[in-house]
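Appendix C: a fully annotated inverse folding record. The material below is reproduced so that readers can follow the format used throughout the book. The structure is listed first as tokens, followed by the designed sequence.
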């Protein structure tokens, strides 16, 4: 499967961030990364992003609001170790997630973005 689209990965755990970036990049996606909400906000203000894969950390909802204002059709997927209630997201992946499941989910959310359909 060859990915097409730009994914912003946001995670404060460097090992998780590195592994996720590698999996997505090897699949052909353009991958941007941030280790905190401040960095992520800078990215969404300056780059076009199709999907945000976001660890649920303090400030997540603020990032989502900024991203949706910048690009209303951006898809936001929470990538967390526990079930987390965050508003205005398109989906959730519980850690740990297999590379196959990660790639399947990204393809699905990018397809939803390109077709303009919601959940």
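Designed amino acids, in order:
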């Amino acid at each position: 499967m060859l990915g097409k689209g730009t994914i912003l990965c946001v995670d404060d755990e460097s090992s998780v961030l590195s592994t996720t970036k590698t999996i997505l990049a090897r699949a052909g996606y353009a991958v941007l990364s941030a280790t905190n909400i401040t960095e992520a906000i800078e990215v969404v203000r300056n780059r076009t992003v199709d999907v945000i894969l976001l660890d649920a950390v303090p400030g997540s909802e603020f990032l989502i609001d900024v991203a949706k204002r910048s690009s209303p059709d951006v898809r936001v997927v929470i990538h967390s170790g526990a079930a987390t209630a965050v508003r205005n997201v398109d989906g959730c992946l519980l850690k740990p997630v297999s590379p196959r499941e990660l790639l399947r989910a990204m393809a699905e959310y990018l397809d939803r973005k390109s077709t303009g359909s919601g959940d």
